[in-house]
UniProtKB/TrEMBL annotation:
Name used for this protein in its record: ATP synthase gamma chain
Complex and partners: F-type ATPases have 2 components, CF(1) - the catalytic core - and CF(0) - the membrane proton channel. CF(1) has five subunits: alpha(3), beta(3), gamma(1), delta(1), epsilon(1). CF(0) has three main subunits: a, b and c.
Organism, scientific name: Candidatus Vogelbacteria bacterium CG10_big_fil_rev_8_21_14_0_10_45_14
GO cellular component entries: plasma membrane; proton-transporting ATP synthase complex
Localization annotation: Cell membrane; Membrane
Domain of life per record: Bacteria
Length: 319
């Protein structure tokens, strides 16, 4: 009889442990499901902004290149450094845009991997790394990359202060001649199931064949560049003067390209997080089902054991 109650107690403890585990898994499943729904909602809002800004960014870029073909800039002008490439200046700035948080699969790691390929091609000593987003800075520093400047990424892409801070820093570096080119690497939002890491030129505005070759070699893709010759086919009258208009336009284009890259990255991050939480919810559901089967088997074993012991005791009493 003593051994009977010992076995019952042991099985009761086992069922209690499994039941506690079921409660924990159920709670985790609710959390991941809620995070999935939040990410999906944020992704939809960001995608709408991304599509609206994409056409503007492309049109503004082409317009800037078109007008730059009609403006005669002084060879030593600081504005010229933002428009035309300087073959003698081999230094570059790489702006790496990632998220502030994890739980989004390999989203941040893919962007950092692309940045590392760029650094290996160009040489670490020739590239100044600027990070927009906490995860990118952490992952790059973990790989031994020196991050010269870190900007806190606002979770709301509409916040213009974040974009202007980054743009002002890049403009200053280019104007002072401390960098010959400025690049941005982030994520391109293709669909909710596909986010592709990209490398794009920011400055100079009219990037040349060297930039095309760099993008093609690192990413395996090419970016279409507006032709400077298009500027000779149309003529515009500038008021008050061409240089002032082009300067303001170049700065606006730079900000719009950074804003577009930020939107694309935000949309891709939320899509990746939605998929990651969806997979986590599915895994939690499968784990819950497995533990429920274990719980039912233990409970059934307890009942069977009790019935067997009662039957044996009754038979002993009859005999």
């Amino acid at each position: 009889m003593y051994s009977f109650w010992c076995r019952i107690k042991t099985m009761a403890n086992s069922t209690k442990e499994v039941k506690t585990r079921l409660t924990s898994i159920s709670g985790a499943k609710k959390i991941t499901k809620a995070m999935e729904m939040i990410a999906a909602s944020r992704m939809r809002r960001t995608v709408e902004r991304t599509k609206a800004a994409r056409d503007y960014e492309i049109s503004a870029w082409k317009l800037g290149v078109l007008l730059s073909g009609q403006v005669k800039l002084d060879p030593i002008s600081s504005l010229r450094k933002l428009v035309f490439a300087n073959p003698n200046n081999k230094s570059s700035i790489l702006l790496v845009i990632t998220g502030n948080r994890g739980l989004c699969g390999s989203f941040n790691a893919n962007v950092v991997s692309l940045a590392m390929r760029f650094l290996e091609r160009e040489g670490h000593e020739n590239v100044e790394v600027v990070c927009l987003g906490k995860k990118g800075a952490e992952l790059l520093q973990a790989r031994g990359v020196a991050v010269s400047r870190f900007f806190q990424k606002d979770d709301n892409p509409k916040n213009s202060e974040c974009i202007m801070s980054v743009a002002d820093y890049l403009f200053y570096k280019m104007r002072e001649g401390r960098a010959g080119r400025t690049w941005v690497t982030g994520s391109s939002f293709v669909s909710s199931f596909e986010q592709r890491p990209i490398l794009k030129p920011l400055f100079p505005l009219a990037f040349d064949e060297v930039a095309k070759e760099t993008i093609a070699e690192i990413t395996g893709e090419s970016e279409e560049a507006p032709e400077l010759e298009a500027g000779k086919k149309r003529w515009y009258r500038f008021e008050p003067n061409a240089s002032l208009i082009l300067e303001r336009l170049v700065l606006a284009i730079g900000e719009s390209r950074i804003y577009q890259a930020l939107l694309e990255s935000a949309a891709g991050e939320q899509a990746a997080r939605m998929l990651a939480m969806q997979a986590a919810t599915k895994a939690a559901g499968e784990m819950y089902d497995e533990q429920l089967v274990v719980f039912n088997k233990l409970r059934q074993g307890m009942i069977t054991q009790e019935l067997a012991e009662i039957s044996a005791a009754r038979a002993a009493m009859v005999n």
